[in-house]
Amino acid sequence: MKKKLPALHIADLTIDPPIMQGGMGVRVSRSGLAAAVANEGCVGVIAGVGLGKFENLPRSEFEAVNNEALRVEIRRAKSLSKGIIGVNLMVALSNYEPLVRTAVDENIDMIISGAGLPLELPKFVEKKNIKLVPVVSSVRALKIICDKWKRNFSRLPDAVIVEGSKAGGHIGYDFGAVVEGNAPTLDQLITEIVGFAKTFDPEIPVIAAGGIFDGRDVAHFLKLGASGVQLGTRFVCTDECDVHENFKQAYLNAKKEDIIIIKSPVGMPGRVIKNKFVDDIISGKTKPAACNYHCLKTCNPRTAPYCIAKALTNAAEGNVDEGFVFAGSNAYRCTEIVPVKKLIDEIVSEAVNYM
Question: Which of 18, 109, 192, 297 is most buried as measured by Cβ atoms within 10 A of its Cβ?
C-alpha cells in the first residue's frame, strides 16, 4: 500500500496533503495561485494586503478599492477551485477591519491573521463557519490569544501557524536576534507550542512555517508534532503564482549571500533579496514620497526613509529595481519555475520517504 502523509484536520476541514500555501503580499499570492494550490487538496491563500491599485489614489479611496479587489480575488479563486481558500490579513493594516468584514461577507473558508495579535477577530465572524487561524512566533502570544478569545467569544483558534525567523518578508522577532541568529529556532517553537496546544480538548492543530523548503523539512516538522506545514517561498516559483515574471526571476538569480535582513520602516526586520534599491537604503539614501494612505499602523510617513508599500508594489508589478523582493531564507535554492501540481507532488513524495 502506498504510503501517505497524515491529513491535516482543521475543525471540519480536511487538508490532504497537510500543506498550506503562505499568504504573500503585496500582490504575490492572489486567486490564481490560491486556486491552483487548493485544487491539489492543500489550502490556497490570498494575501489581502494592497490588492487594489491604490498607489495613485487619494486616501479617501484606499479602503474601498482594496475591499473591492479582495472581493474580486476571493470570487475568482472560488470560481477556479472547489478546494479550501483562505485569506491572510495582517492586524497591522490600517484597513484590517474592513478587509476582515469583506472576507466574511464572501464566506471565505479561513482567515489567517498575524503581524500583531488578532484579539478581536472572532467578533467579525458571528455564527459563520469560517476557520480562524492566528500566526504567532511565541507560546506567550498564543496563550494571550486563547485567553482573550475564550473569555470574550467562547471560542479558541481552529489552528495556529507558528512562524520561525527564517520566513520571508516581515519577521516577528527582534532585528538583532534575527541578524545574530539568536531568535528561537522553529524546532524549539514547535516543540513548546505543540505541548501547549495539547492541553486543549480538542487540541489545537499546529502548523509549522518559516524556511520550510522541501519534503525532508516537511517530514521533520510532522515528526516534531506539527499537524501541517506552511510554505511560501517555493510557491513563488510556480507557473500559477500571480506575481510578475521579473519577481520570480529575482528568486532564480539570487545567491545565498543575496538574501539579507533589513530594517523595515514599519519597525520590523524584513528578509529581502539584495539589489540596488536595498543597497541605497542600507547606505542611508532616502526615497521620499508623499504618502496618501498610511497602509500600516506602525509606519510613520513623516519619518519613514522610504514607502514600503510603493517598494513592494513596484516589485510585484515587475519594476524590481524601484523596490525589493521579499523572500524566505531558502529562496536561493529555487532553480526553476514549475506547475503547482508538480511542486506539491515532489514535496509530498520526498516527505513520505523521510517519514
Answer: 18
